[in-house]
Every structure is written in C-alpha cells, then in structure tokens.
Target: FAD-dependent oxidoreductase 2 FAD binding domain-containing protein
Amino acid sequence: MPPWPPCLQPTLSTARRATAFSFSRSRRSRLSSSSSIPASVCASPGDHTHQQQRDNEEQSLVVVGGGAAGVYASIRAKTLAPHLNVVVVEKGRFLSKVKVSGGGRCNVTNGHHLEPMGLSRNYPRGNKELRGSFFTAHGPQDTMRWFTDHGVELKTEDDGRVFPVTDNSASVVDCLLNEARRLGVSLQAGKAVPSVSVTQHGKFVLKVEKRTADLVDYLNANYVLVATGSSQQGYSIAAQLGHSIISPVPSLFTFKVADKRLADLAGVTFPVVKAKLKLDGVQKSAPELTQTGPMLVTHWGLSGPIVLRLSAWGARELHQCNYQGKLMVDFVPDIHIEDMRRILFHYKDQHAISLGTMESKKQPNLFFAGEVLNVDGVTGGFNFQNAWTGGYIAGTSIGTLALTSN
Ligand SMILES: Cc1cc2nc3c(=O)[nH]c(=O)nc-3n(C[C@H](O)[C@H](O)[C@H](O)COP(=O)(O)OP(=O)(O)OC[C@H]3O[C@@H](n4cnc5c(N)ncnc54)[C@H](O)[C@@H]3O)c2cc1C
Model:
C-alpha cells in the first residue's frame, strides 16, 4: 500500500467514509453504439439484370469490414460452404485494430470467464442479451482452440488475458489472413461500401468505392454481413436497410479530476478501492455504478481498471450529464460485502437481430457482427471475444443457408 497523504490518511473514524472527487471525462477511447430495429426497405438498384442472372448461378456473400468479426465470419462461412463466393471489402487495411490491439500483443480473449453467464457480466452494453446462447455457440475456449489448431500458440496471463506466446499481434493477423486466402476468400482492401440496397427479388446491391481512384463499382450478393465496427458508414448502411440507430457514446475513458489532494499522488496505484459514480439528475443508482478494484492516480486525475469500468457501465448516464459528476472513493472498502454483492442488470431489450443467427429480423439474409452492434465489454479480451463469437455465428448461419439453398 502506498503512503497516504495527510489529507487522505484514513483514521479509525474515517476509514469507511468515501472521499468525493469532482471529475470530467479526460479523453475518449471507444464508442458504444447500436443498430436496433423498425421499418423495412426495398430499393431498386436500376439495371443489374445481367448480374442477377449470375446470381442464379452462384451464391455470394459480401462482408463489409475486414476487422476481427468480418474476417472470422468469412473464414467460417467459406469453411462450411466452399462453393460460396465470399468477398470481404475493407476500406483501409485488413485487421488493423487487431494489429494495434493489446499494445501490439493482441489480447485475443479472456481465459478466466469461460462460462456464458460470468462472461456476459463483462459487457456493460449487451450483458443481458449475451447471457443466452451467444457464447455457448462459440466461447473463449472455442476461440483459443481455433487459434491453437491454426498454429497460434496462446498463453493466459495471471489476470486472465490471453495473448499469443509471441507477444506479437502479427501472429494473429497472419493466421487469419492466411487461412482466409487458403480457403479462397477474396480480400479487397482500400475499398469502401457507402451504401447497400435491396432488389425486388431480395438480393443485395452494394456500392463499392475505391479509395485511391475515382472508381465506383457495384457488387451483387445473396448475403451481406455488416461488420464495420464503430464506423459511421456501418450505421448508415444499417439505417438504409431498415434499422434504427442508437447514437454512439464514448466508453472506456479515464476521469479528469482537478483536486489538489491528488497533486502529490500522480503515479500511485491503490490496489483496492471502492468508487461510486454520483451524477446530477440521473435517477439510476445501478449497482454497476459502484466498482471495487485497483485505481491509479495520474497527473490529470484518475485511471485504472475501476475507472475504465465505471466509464463503460455509466457511458450513457455520463453522456447525459455532459461528463460532469462526483466520484465517491472509499479507500478502505469492505471487501467482504463487495464480494457478496449480487449484480443486477437493467437493460432494455432491443431485439433487432437474432443473436442465435446474427440475422436481421427486418431484412432476411442481412447479418451483423462485432462492434457495430450495441455490445461493448470492459478491457481484458472481451471485445474481441464478442467479435469472434458474432463472426462465427454469422458465418455458420450464412454457410448453412448457402448449403441448403443449393
Ligand atoms: C487501441 C485499441 C486496442 C484494443 N485492444 C483490444 C484488445 O487487446 N482486446 C480486445 O478484446 N479488444 C481490444 N480493442 C477493441 C477491439 O479492437 C474491437 O472490439 C474489435 O476490433 C471490434 O472488431 P470488429 O470487427 O467489430 O470491428 P473493427 O475491428 O473496427 O473492424 C471493422 C472494419 O470495418 C472497416 N469498415 C468500416 N466501414 C467500412 C465500409 N463502409 N466499407 C468497408 N470497410 C469498412 C474498418 O476499416 C475496419 O477495419 C482495442 C481497441 C483499440 C482502439
């Protein structure tokens, strides 16, 4: 335990009393978002008759977005249905987030939360929905097995985070891209899909723009998977195809605290504190807005696992309060009571997409996977696990449909 500064030193009478800090958001690191439902869309793309004739001959899947979810899904679909023509269109570089993730090491998944119920508790957005069959279909153990079977040896660190033994994300990136190429998936980088429409026959027409040249092309597809991460274009495609969007708000950020009492503590880590978010005008007093765990004092305020967790669980409420509020910090928490605490979830159901198949309930043969959905996890490999699981389920559904419709 670090030395206490005079003003924060606990005495017998103050040890259980929380210290209050006013804070604001220090920086944005992620967006949480959602594609929920209504309306249906049917747009005629114009003259694509010749392409429709080709559709009769071969089944095709176009994946929009070559991140973790999109590439994993393309591999799964092509493995199940080798005759399926699979194209992944990526506007930048394939798997660029995987490359930079985990400080360049790629925290692939989490090895301490293997059963679906416990695992789902690590998702501030999506925990209720993910409690069901989602992770049963493809959980962390399946992910680890998949990578190991494909030549990426993994290790689990003490805190549960799983990394390649090489400590280099390139092992994961190379494995996925080599497997996709080996199976015959067409990987098209440097091309963006700004819009998707649906023909009267229920086929998709995707507009594809090549970024470096003034070139527009159209792709026809029987199946479309939107795996665009937190990109605005992905939400716009979802909206074009009849889904309404919950505007994204930042998540996983640290707190800026201008409080003289913290001035001499920059760099000090408190291994276990209990911190509670108090936000003006927010009625909600959810148990998730109180967190226990390590906290780090930085030169601008507070950081560390509990602060990131609070920013994730309170993402919408913090946004409502313009990122101003109070943080009550108990530096000597009653750990026993905390351990006994049962977490209750209060999330509104938004069943726009069937999590059993990842298919839209509004538009047949349209699928979503990964961060484009209103799912985000705390740090520790949970976000990639959402991408692998969603990609796997979508790929399985599309591959199975392609097999049965032949
Ligand atoms: C710095 C950083 C480090 C991270 N580290 C970890 C970690 O170690 N472990 C973990 O679990 N999570 C980590 N995350 C979170 C994780 O990266 C994401 O949850 C995950 O990448 C989501 O995968 P995805 O496939 O849904 O989206 P993305 O990985 O964002 O992929 C979406 C892709 O779609 C492309 N795209 C978007 N719109 C279009 C369009 N219109 N046309 C064509 N292409 C399009 C984008 O260019 C992008 O490549 C990290 C995030 C960041 C920012």
Q: What stands out?
A: Residues 28 and 147 are 31 Å apart (CA to CA).
